[in-house]
Design a protein that fits this description.
Low-confidence stretches: 402-434
CATH architecture of the largest domain: Alpha-Beta Complex
Strand order of the largest sheet: 33-36-32-37-34-38-35
Helix content: 25-40%
Number of helices: 24
Number of domains: 4
CATH class of the largest domain: Alpha Beta
């Protein structure tokens, strides 16, 4: 059977991991459109479900129960996940502007970033109040508040919530529940609720308003109606004064802002049409009224033909129609109208596992309503768990989509995309696998590539090969490495791979000079490939520029999957070479980074990780070994290597053989990444792990220790792992302190070098 690859033809970018986008990603994973490069940009890895937030505040739910893992969800949807904060849009050039990434190109865009409480009309609110949104920041602040109170559980506490809508009322109930479990004396809690209107729960029935007011008064909450807060000022280090326009002043230690929803300011500066409050104005298709290639949903969107409150129920309901219309516009099909319901059911938890139901003019309070609400919320969250069990159905849908994709003529596309989607594309594996010269030229023109003066011929004057003027006093060091993509963000992938490839030079104490790149791009049209290549090379250049290393050339071809590698050149003085040989008895072994990359990446492939585990792993892989190498040289390291594919033991065995010594290894001192013990206990290991076990013959170990998960970790292959160095005993403590001081905070002394007896061995101890 001949291979006929799918062509990438469109960039669809989703900004924000709100409820609507979570549903879009889930549906997309089950019903993908081949050829669409889907990207999610989110400022957090775990997105909260608003319906369960008050219950989490009360302590009824854990973080995992109330948050959707966006990394896991994006993987299921076969979407790229960019962990970054969006700060602007370049609508003319169709680019998303982020804090960390270079501009991100899109053909179609969808925005679901929620809202934030209005605070510009309250002086001091930005400095002294805690907004309820973004939820991630609110929860971090709430945890700090709880820890502060737990430290002084006997002291009186005064807490204020500004805003008496459904959000403020529910927080008041649930915060009280939580705090009464912390404070030793319930009478020490003073909780204030300030509201602008005549009645709480503006927009709900008169009965519901009076009911929540009655319940709050019963539990001792002070309610201030018809009060508009104008200013918040500090009285002392931990006390604030809240001033209302009536002249009333309220003292409080912690102030929470749950006021009217407002849009992030950057939205209004983009040029997209908004309503008077700054929210994106959309038509019945959830499509921007000014930019038809942009969609918006959830709190950030205002429907032109319907006035509805900013409530999570609408964000959830908009998920399916948003998904339908995003796919329709990509396929050139007719868009479908969405008509939001006029009345909607609100279930307001009262902090005691009871709830109030509000629907139109009707209302009810009962414990069974909490049970019902809990069931609804958990059922919603179950849609974003256990993805491994959904794979079979997903794969069948993908096969159906591929058949449809390859046989249908998709309308309303450029001629280039139509031709690619309908013709038989049969690439050879020779020179025709290269990408076009125009694509390379355009990408290189967009990049700022500095060249060292020693480079006679490089990218500034491209030729068949680069030419470097080598100094006679130094030795030339060369190394090469290459990876298929293991993270979905090419900007991050470029940084990690560059760190990994350069690490061999750092491990030897060399000064890196220049690199040549080898890149495999997936099949696709030039506009999509240029975006991938640009992000990838910008990531690589970010690392190269930090050390004044030049990119001097490379080779780019096409294949099934993105891949990247570097051939690295460096120089070294003959008297400053760090090698694997040279370890001396009584030297201390220092490891500069934690282990666990292999098992975590393997576990991620089968949906057995948490997003923040991968966040921590990426953070570790983004740390360069350059400074660590310099510190090891400063403290007279006798030998050094970097821990990569062979695992800690594999590289340690190389050092022992080269130095003709043995080693005592302290298992409990080895630093480990978050989540690794959990994945190891599940028996999840990298594909290289079994081969690395061949080195187990060099270990002397108690049989009981072999059952420990951190023992198995000794054979775990690392990507962009840390340095393993032997440091003279008298220098080891100071070396460790300096490593920690400059940022290698997980560094540990993990063992010592000893004389070998008959055979080279690594004695593993606890």
């Amino acid at each position: 059977m001949k291979f006929n690859p799918t062509q990438l033809t469109d960039n669809l970018v989703l900004i924000g991991g709100g409820h609507s986008h979570a549903i879009v990603l889930k549906l997309w994973g089950m019903n993908p459109i081949p050829g669409v490069r889907l990207t999610l940009i989110g400022d957090r890895t775990h997105t909260p479900y608003s319906g369960m937030l008050p219950g989490q505040v009360a302590g009824f739910y854990t973080f995992e129960e109330t948050h959707i893992d966006l990394r896991c969800l994006a993987q299921f949807a076969q979407a790229n996940f960019y962990h970054d904060t969006v700060i602007d849009l370049d609508l003319e050039n169709k680019q998303v502007i982020c804090e960390e990434h270079p501009p991100i190109a899109f053909d179609y865009l969808s925005i679901d970033i929620g809202s934030i409480p209005q605070k510009s009309n309250i002086l001091g609110a930005s400095d002294y109040a805690i907004p309820a949104k973004p939820v991630g920041q609110f929860l971090m602040s709430w945890e700090k508040v709880k820890k502060t109170i737990q430290t002084h559980p006997k002291q009186p506490l005064n807490l204020t919530i500004i805003g008496g809508g459904a959000g403020g009322v529910e927080l008041a109930f649930n915060m009280r529940t939580c705090l009464l479990n912390i404070l030793e004396n319930p009478n020490n809690l003073t909780l204030n609720l300030i509201h602008q209107g005549d009645n709480l729960l503006t927009g709900h029935s008169h009965w519901a308003s009076k009911k929540v007011q009655s319940l709050l008064l019963e539990n001792g909450t002070n309610i201030y109606l018809n009060e508009t807060v104008t200013e918040i000022t500090p009285n002392s280090a931990h006390h604030y004064s809240i001033t209302c326009d009536s002249g009333r002043k309220i003292r409080s230690e912690f102030i929470f802002l749950v006021t009217q929803a407002s849009a992030p300011q950057w939205i209004g500066k983009t040029g997209i049409t908004t309503d008077k409050k700054g929210f994106i104005l959309v038509n019945d298709y959830l499509q921007s009224v000014s930019h038809p290639h942009i969609f918006a949903a959830g709190d950030i969107a205002t429907m032109q033909n319907y006035f509805r409150p900013k409530a999570g129920v609408f964000a959830v309901r908009q998920g399916q129609p948003l998904f339908n219309n995003l796919q329709s516009i990509l396929l050139g099909n007719k868009l479908q109208s969405y008509h939001p319901q006029k009345f909607y059911l609100s279930l307001i938890g009262t902090g005691n596992k009871k709830a109030i139901a509000s629907w139109g003019s009707l209302g009810l309070e009962a414990s069974w309503l909490w049970t019902w609400k809990d069931h609804i919320d958990r059922k919603f969250m179950d849609r974003f768990k256990n993805f491994s069990s959904m794979e079979a159905k997903k794969n069948n849908n993908i096969i159906d989509a591929l058949v449809t994709f390859k046989n249908e003529v998709i309308l309303n596309k450029s001629q280039e995309k139509k031709e690619l989607k309908n013709k038989k594309f049969m690439p050879c594996n020779g020179c025709a696998s290269k990408v076009g010269s125009s694509l390379l030229r355009r990408t290189l023109q967009r990049l700022e590539i500095d060249q060292n003066p020693e480079i006679i011929v490089g990218l500034n004057s491209p030729d068949d090969a680069a030419i470097i003027d080598i100094s006679e006093q130094e030795l030339l060091v060369e190394t090469v490495d290459y990876f298929p993509s293991f993270v979905s963000d090419p900007f991050i992938f470029g940084q990690i791979t560059t760190n990994h490839c350069l690490s061999d030079l750092w491990a030897m104490g060399a000064k890196a000079h220049s690199v040549s790149a080898v890149i495999t791009l997936p099949y696709g049209v030039d506009s999509v490939l240029e975006e991938i290549l640009y992000q990838l090379l910008q990531g690589s250049l970010k690392i190269l520029k930090q050390s004044e290393i030049s990119l001097i050339g490379g080779h780019t071809l096409q294949g099934e999957k993105l891949g990247f590698g570097l051939s690295c050149n460096g120089f070294i003085l003959s008297n400053r070479i760090l090698s694997k040989s040279g370890m001396q008895p009584n030297d201390r072994l220092i490891l500069t980074k934690p282990l666990g990359i292999g098992t975590l990446l393997a576990a991620e492939m089968v949906y057995q990780t948490k997003g923040y585990w991968i966040d921590n792993a990426i953070k570790s892989m983004l740390i360069s070994n350059k400074k660590a190498s310099e510190i090891c040289l400063e403290f007279e390291a006798s030998a050094c290597t970097d821990v990569t594919g062979f695992g800690l033991v594999g590289h340690l065995v190389e050092m022992m053989k080269a130095s003709q010594v043995s080693v005592e290894l302290n298992l409990d001192k080895i630093p480990i990444l978050t989540g690794v013990i959990e994945t190891m206990k599940q028996g999840i290991t990298s594909s290289l792990h079994p081969k690395n076990l061949d080195n187990e013959t060099y270990l002397t170990v108690n049989k009981d220790m072999e059952k420990l998960p951190n023992y198995s970790l000794l054979f775990d292959p690392q990507t962009s792992g840390g340095l393993l160095a032997s440091i003279p005993e008298e220098n080891s403590d100071r070396c460790l302190q300096e490593l920690i001081r400059v940022g290698y905070t997980d560094s540990q002394i993990i063992g010592k070098v000893i004389k070998k007896s008959n055979n080279i061995t690594c004695i593993v101890k606890q």
